[in-house]
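> call design_seq(struct)
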């Protein structure tokens, strides 16, 4: 599976909970209306919801530096060689104590034994598939910790390196297809359905709840003031009940994007096909 084309918007439209009756005239507009509503609410909620599926080719990080690869153990892919028991022990300072470790795992304060861990994009929603040497690895062979750490189980370790010039169906490769992101909450599904309904009504020339430019209407001696769409947008609102409730609940401070932490040393994985 290849990665989707990079985009600044959501990876796919959110699944709506419809708040209106779909008519024969409105049904052809549902796809475009849901896409537009998704893009609006995705950005209004701080770009924090929606799940993306893509494939990465991990680049394994070592828990110590200056390792002499190839001199010990033959440098192969398997239970020995480069990753597991076949390399010369190297000293590593962990938690203030020195340990002699072989290549293939890192010790930690929670574990009595070294763990083989690969860092994934965060937050991981689910692992779709892991391939080693072109073969799909059974789900019992790994788990995800802390929404980003892919841990190898059964006493095995992840490969130290791979041939990036080959497809992940070949030997000497490994890849992870995963879903990353946060699922859209229930109020978000209602919000996208509500907004999509109003967008379709506007396209069909029907009366809709989205405010227009008019701010004052007088009928039979009664004057009603309405906020203009520009005033609502300045207040990070849309003038719709579910949509505004969703945005004010999950993005009360009007952030334009979800907070992120960047690793100045670079990522430990590579997006395949991008």
């Amino acid at each position: 599976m290849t990665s989707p084309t990079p985009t600044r918007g959501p990876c796919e439209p959110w699944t709506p909970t419809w708040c209106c009756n779909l008519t024969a005239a409105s049904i052809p507009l549902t796809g475009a209306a849901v896409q537009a509503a998704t893009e609006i609410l995705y950005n209004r909620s701080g770009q924090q919801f929606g799940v993306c599926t893509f494939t990465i080719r991990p680049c394994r990080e070592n828990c110590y530096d200056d390792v002499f690869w190839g001199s010990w153990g033959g440098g192969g892919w398997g239970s020995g060689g480069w990753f597991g028991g076949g390399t010369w022990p190297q000293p590593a300072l962990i938690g203030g104590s020195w340990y002699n470790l072989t290549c293939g795992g890192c010790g930690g304060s929670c574990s009595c034994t070294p763990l083989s861990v690969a860092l994934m994009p965060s937050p991981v929603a689910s692992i779709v598939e892991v391939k080693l040497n072109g073969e799909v690895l059974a789900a019992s062979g790994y788990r995800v910790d802390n929404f980003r750490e892919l841990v190898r189980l059964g006493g095995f370790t992840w490969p130290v390196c791979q041939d990036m010039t080959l497809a992940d169906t070949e030997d000497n490769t490994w890849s992870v297809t995963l879903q990353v992101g946060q699922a859209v909450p229930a109020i978000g599904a209602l919000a996208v359905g509500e907004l999509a309904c109003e967008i379709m009504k506007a396209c069909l020339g029907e009366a809709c709840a989205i405010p227009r430019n008019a701010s004052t209407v007088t009928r039979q001696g009664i004057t009603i003031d309405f906020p203009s769409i520009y005033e609502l947008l300045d207040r990070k609102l849309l003038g719709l009940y579910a949509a505004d409730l969703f945005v004010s609940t999950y993005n009360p401070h009007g952030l334009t994007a979800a907070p992120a932490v960047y690793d100045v040393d670079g990522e430990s994985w590579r997006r395949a096909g991008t």
